[in-house]
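Q: I have 228 residues here and want to know how they pack in 3D. Can you give me a structure?
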Amino acid sequence: MKVNVTKILILGGSGSIGSAIYNCLSNHHDVYGTYNENKPDNIDDSRFKKFSINNLTGLDSILYEIKPDLIISSLTGNFDQQLIVHKRIASFLNETNGRCVFISTANVFDGSPNDSKTEDDTPYPISAYGKFKYSCEKLLQNELKEKCLIVRLPRTLTHKDIENEVKQIEKNGSVFNNLYTSYNTAKNVVNAIKFCIEENKSGVLHLSSNDSMLQDDFVESLLKAAGM
């Protein structure tokens, strides 16, 4: 059933993915965001709130001022503190019957990297980052049940990311010729998230490409597209 979302709060709205989501959704919904140090340019001050993950009182102030129907979490920072923040987010959303989209990562499978994974596969993280993201997933799913959507991303590239990648290749020329990778673009990701929000989707979603390729093949395709 399609749901009209009134207010959306993007925690980490000034980051690469967070800002891409904000720019997409703000054309269709009442969207707010948070930033830690640098507020995005050309954004109304009333739309972005300064927030540090170490300040739970500040988080409560933002939540009860905006009263979002949906929270999208694209936060970064200390893992232990983020878990505390997400516990508070879940508590707030249970009070208000709100929903959550958690931006997770393909790294929840970094302990078994030799084949592709689907939404039905059990995560097996071994890195600190993968373990943290999986802990957040479980916390939010246990607390919010069908009101939670987990979005797992591979490496996700904006136009700026691609430009920086090309520059780094020009400078260092270092890639792994035996590493298979999967990518997506920020445009594809945010359009998929918008669809899931408006169609009231829940559960786990992998926003990766259908195939994978060697990293040096990907680099070659980047250079070719850049005319190099």
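Q: Anything worth noting?
A: Residues 79-96 form the longest helix (18 residues). The chain has seven helices and eleven strands.
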